[in-house]
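Revision sheet: structure tokens.
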Amino acid sequence: MPIASLHRGAVLLARGDRRVVDEVSGLADDSTGRACSARTRFQIASISKNMAAAAVLLLAERGRLDVADPIDRWVPHCPPAWRPITLHHLLTHTSGLGHWEEYAQLDLAAAIDPDELLARFRALAPLFAPGAGWHYSSPGYVLLARAVERAADRPYRDFLAEEIFAPLGLTGSFAGSGVGREHVATGHVAGRAVGSWDLDTVSMGAGDVWCTAEDLLSWLDGLRDARLLGAASVARMVTPHAPTGTGQAYGYGCFVGPLGAEPAIHHSGQNAGFQSYVAWQPDRDRRLVLLTNEEELDGTLVARFLAVD
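Predicted:
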């Protein structure tokens, strides 16, 4: 199946051990004419929440933290309204914290001191009491990354590199800024290159990971085969903890619900100039990875690829 409608990027579709689709298209960087290839690293945007949730669960397996911990155990100077919020609430977007649109004065592309970022988050009152509703919150995942740093006693990006990527052999993956890295794609909107969001602080834990398509498929396979997390932790991750009001539910770092008529675990992502999508359909052992450095993804592509047999 050609991917002519994908202007630039990479698609992998696997069923069992068979690659049904494995294609790359377009330019990674228009200014140099460098083509996308199997080694091209794309921002996976909010799919990074998969890895943040796995980091929390891995530390929980080691007894370093618990998803029932209140956030103020791990993040200093929490306002009183945050004290009932637990890591579970943050993982499931049931904390009541806002998403980026609620922080209108925050520039997602500008570097900011980590303490100043937390001060911006603290200044906004929760939208509802913890557990009383569902509201997608990337800032909640930034707080989870802070909790991982405290519990692991090392920078979040280092924890991902050493404890998430390395054990799964994800040699093309990293978290944080792509400046100075090889084989990184440049993001585009309407065919024009755009600057990246800040991935070191503002989007840490929420949208900071870069992957090749091959690595992202290996990530899904690692979850499927419980090669990083134990089976109980994987089951906890893909449990539909919180209804989203759209026929889907949210687990830990992933959406859980039907795609077409089949149960699926999935997530999309969108950063400046990048879009991404992953899906795992356990009943037929299908895994889809779609990465593009063009922020105008055809909304029908996911359905088209999932229809391929």
